[in-house]
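$ run holo --ligand "adenine" --emit tokens
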Amino acid sequence: MKVAIVSAMPEELKPVLEVVNIKKEEKFGIPQKFIEAKYKDNDLVLCVGGIGKVNAAISTTRLIEKYNPDVLIMIGVAGALNPSLKIGDIVVAKDAVYHDVDVTPLGYKIGEVPETGIIWKGDEDLVKDFENICKENLKDKKVLVGRIASGDQFVASKDKANWIRETFQADAIEMESASFYHTLNLYGKKGVVLRAISDSADEEANIDFPTFLNEVSQKFRDIILSYLDKT
Ligand code: ADE
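-- output --
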């Protein structure tokens, strides 16, 4: 099986890169990078896709068109919107929305990309599989199957975070998942997003984020390896 693992930032992918057998590397645009690798019997494509919705759509499209993986897994960090989530907890995204899309003056719903959609779903089986794998690997952390809100903003405001939670019933916030799921839906590809909480999207978020980025990124290595060992 060929599995793609995508992150926005190199820090999020680094722990996984340390344990796979790297074969080949392609640079495509700035900052997109695609690394072909092997782990046991699995072919892997590891992708640093860049921050934000456009980078996520470009890199996911490139991954599918050029490398044609069977399964795509996005890993990375997120800010908590759901008050029950603490730093280090995991969200497995059952779906994702764009919190910064607003064409309401033309009669569309908040978050609706005109004539396209509002809620972008992950693959149900992968969501279930990864919920179980995360629970097995992270006994001391909460693992929540929930909704992610994506937008081209680093949110560091309690008011803004509350608005996004109330408007979209979202559990966590970041900048890529909705365009990842959107692209997968168009291509009919299976994928899932896993996010570790790095901050609470409040006025302290800019301090918490870099502090916890490396720490929480480590968690994904064991989760990804457990999944690959089972496939
Ligand atoms: N990724 C991690 N924390 C975030 C935040 N507060 N806003 C947007 N993306 C994030």
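-- notes --
Strands lie at 2-7, 21-27, 33-39, 42-48, 71-80, 90-98, 120-121, 143-150, 172-174, 190-199.
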